[in-house]
Amino acid sequence: MHQDRLSFLALHFISGVGDQLVKQLVSYCGSAEQVFKTPKGKLLKIPGIGPVTADSIRTGSSFHQAEKELKKAEKEDTEILFYTDKKYPERLKSIEDAPSLLYYRGNANLNHTKSVAIVGTRQATEYGKEMVSKIVEELKPHGAIIVSGLAYGIDIQAHKQALKNNLSTVAVMGSGMDVIYPSAHKETAKKMASHGALLTENHFGTKPDAHNFPARNRIIAGMCDALVVVEAAEKGGALITAEIANSYNKDVLAIPGSLGQAYSEGCNKLIRNNKATIYTSIKDLEYLMNWSVEETNSKKEKKVVDFSSFSDDEQKILSLLQEKNSPMVIDELTIKTALSPSLLASLLLTLEFSNVVKSLPGKQFALINK
Hints:
The chain is an alpha/beta fold. Helix content is 44%, strand content 13%. The strands form two sheets. A nine-stranded mixed beta sheet has the order 1-2-6-5-4-3-7-8-9, with helices on both faces.
């Protein structure tokens, strides 16, 4: 198992191999370890793999970097979560451009039953800060996890208020785990590591370069059930995050602001263009998400179903879906069943016709509860 994890990490240090290609390689070859054992001729048949990439895989030169990274992770008290790990955020798995690995430090449950992202301008006004305090305080009875980006302004206010209200909070960073940015927020980040988590897709030593932040924003959008924009200029990172959240079919809410105020323009624009629901109190969010304080968060008992009448390969699929007790994306099924993508697609279609499996948006599949 250690070798497969090392192999998974090594794939990320091969030039030109991004998240999608990592998932594709593992899907085609059956495991990350097997990718490096696959002959060059077979690698070249995988879409997106050219001679240079195939040679880089075959030489295995990226293992040295991967080993250094694992040692660094151990030293930095950081866990590396792969796409197939149970701790990896399920909400992210349903988005096409999800990171194939995440660096994680803390104790937050990344698959918490309720997750709200709060974002906004770095130049937060007193009104914006007050609104953040109100939102977080109103979320306390729900025990929701608060997700944001550790930036100045609205982001750091969201994290601080979550800590104040004893709510778990996650900061998604646009830098390496060992590069806390901005440095002024190191103390808050330290507190979050013991009551929440720090999360990044970037390797150790990655500087907070501008191009990392739009990528960071997609993780914030992907990890939440609902995104609340508190204050935003007409253009900027908060609106980019809102656009991404909309593209993921997430619920977006925005705090209305005074006309003519620079940091109200973005929120008012989102509401005007029907890209966000107006947020006036927690009741707006509760109505949109169908949440109630009284609801129990206990998981439903898993119903044991007899799959003995199905073939061995079909039983693999059905057992995984039953164990998960929630939808699984086809990439994850391919990796965990070690079936070829074409065979898996054929089996899933047969199971759909047998009325035991249903297909869902985002290439997800789930058992039909009878």
